[in-house]
Amino acid sequence: MASSTETTTRVSATAKYVRVAPRKARLVVDQIRNKSVEKAMELLRFNERAVSEDVEKVLRSAVANAVNNNGLRADDLVIVEAYVDEGPTLKRIRPRAKGSASRINKRTSHITVTVAPRKEA
C-alpha cells in the first residue's frame, strides 16, 4: 500500500567513453554506493586513484540534475545506484622481437551514478 502512494524520484548521470579500465573504475565506485552525497564527495576527494575525479564529476552532475530538474535538495540525496559498464576497447599494437607484434587493449568505461532522496523514517 505504502509503495503505491509513495513516488520515488531517481535521477542519474552518465559519463561515457572514459579512458580508464572498468575494473579500476569499479574499485572506486564500489566505495561510494549507498552513501550520502556529502560522504561520497569526501571519499572521492581524498581517494588517490585517478578515476575518482571522473566519478566525482558524474556524481556532481547527478546532484545538479536532481536539484535543477527535479527540485530536490542536495542535502537529502543518497547514492542508490552506481555502476561501471565496459565501453569499446581501442586496439593498438606494440612491435616485438623478430618482426612480431603484441596487442595493447586500451579499455574504456561508461560510469553511471543514480541519486534519490533519503527515506524519512
Can you put this structure into words, describing what you see?
The protein is of the alpha+beta class. It has a single domain (10-116), classed as Alpha-Beta Complex (Ribosomal Protein L22, Chain A). It has four helices and five strands. Strand 3 and strand 4 (101-106) form a beta hairpin. Helix 3 (37-45) packs antiparallel against helix 4 (51-70). The longest helix has 20 residues, at 51-70. It is elongated, with a radius of gyration of 18 Å.
Short synopsis of the structure:
36% of the residues lie in helices and 32% in strands. With 121 residues, the chain is of the alpha+beta class.
Q: Enumerate the spans where pLDDT stays under 50 for 5 or more consecutive residues.
A: none
User: Number of DSSP helices?
Assistant: 4
CATH-defined superfamily: Ribosomal protein L22/L17
- The name of the CATH architecture is Alpha-Beta Complex
Shape: elongated
- Beta-strand content: 25-35%
SSE series: HEHHHEEEE
**Mean pLDDT figure:** 91
What percentage of residues falls in helices of 4 or more residues?
25-40%
The total strand number stands at: 5
Look at the helices and sheets and give the structural class: alpha+beta
Overall radius of gyration? 18 Å
Major beta sheet, strand line-up: 1-5-2
Largest sheet: 3 strands, antiparallel
End-to-end span in angstroms?
16 Å
Characteristics of this structure?
121 residues, alpha+beta, Ribosomal Protein L22, Chain A, three-stranded antiparallel β-sheet, two-stranded antiparallel sheet, 4 helices, 5 strands, elongated
